[in-house]
Amino acid sequence: MARDTWWNLSPDKRQRVLNAALREFGRKGFSAGSLNAVAREAGIAKGSLFQYFEDKLDLYATICQQVAEEARTATLNGVDPGGDRRFFDVIRDLTVNWLRYFRAHPLARDIGLAIKHEMDPSVRAAVSSTVNAGYVDALSPLAKQAADRGELGPGVDPDQVVAMLILVLRFLDAAPFYPHLDPVLDLYDKKPDEVEAVAMDLIGAVERAYAPPQRKRKKADDRR
């Protein structure tokens, strides 16, 4: 965890260091990323970084966690997950917010891609476990509530639904923004509204897989 000195920095200085680290690690990943480059772009001495963080991994983990928390906050913005709306309707709103956040924040999506492609297994485990835990914490209560309400099919494990949704979301925070990641749907070549339409289709596929049989039949009838 970052030292107290990091959190005691002025917001402007902390943001400057954060942005420098996001650019460096987002372009080069953890292993090739340079603390010298981070310090130089942030306009501070390299030694100052060790006043804020225990080591390079501590810095990397801190910025990754902060991006994950910002993405989670932005995704939940304007959505009432504890209300009476159906689970998959809420998920559709969250998915749209998720896409729009990463479309508007290139540094966040770069670091997200770097996390996915990190080659050092110990670094990948240290960062991914924390980041993914945040997404699980946000989605699991909603899925369990949906199961209690009968919005999931008999015997459906809510954890499986959460796992599938995280797979979809982690696909959507990269595939529309980088070439060659999506050889099937070609999201990179699509306009934002087209990407959102495909995203809704993907969430619909998850819903059809896990919804109660009568709801699946109703949706099929509606399509006819």
Describe the 3D structure:
This protein is mostly helical and 224 residues long. The termini are far apart. The longest helix has 28 residues. It is elongated, with a radius of gyration of 20 Å. 29% of the residues are buried.
Can you summarize this structure?
By secondary structure, the protein is mainly α.
Topology overview:
Layout: H1 4-7, H2 11-32, H3 35-42, H4 46-52, H5 56-76, H6 87-104, H7 106-117, H8 121-148, H9 158-172, H10 192-210, H11 213-223
Task: Spell out the key features of this protein.
elongated, about 220 residues
Biggest sheet statistics: none
Instruction: Give the SSE order as H and E letters.
Output: HHHHHHHHHHH
Average predicted local confidence, pLDDT: 92
User: How many helices does DSSP assign?
Assistant: 11
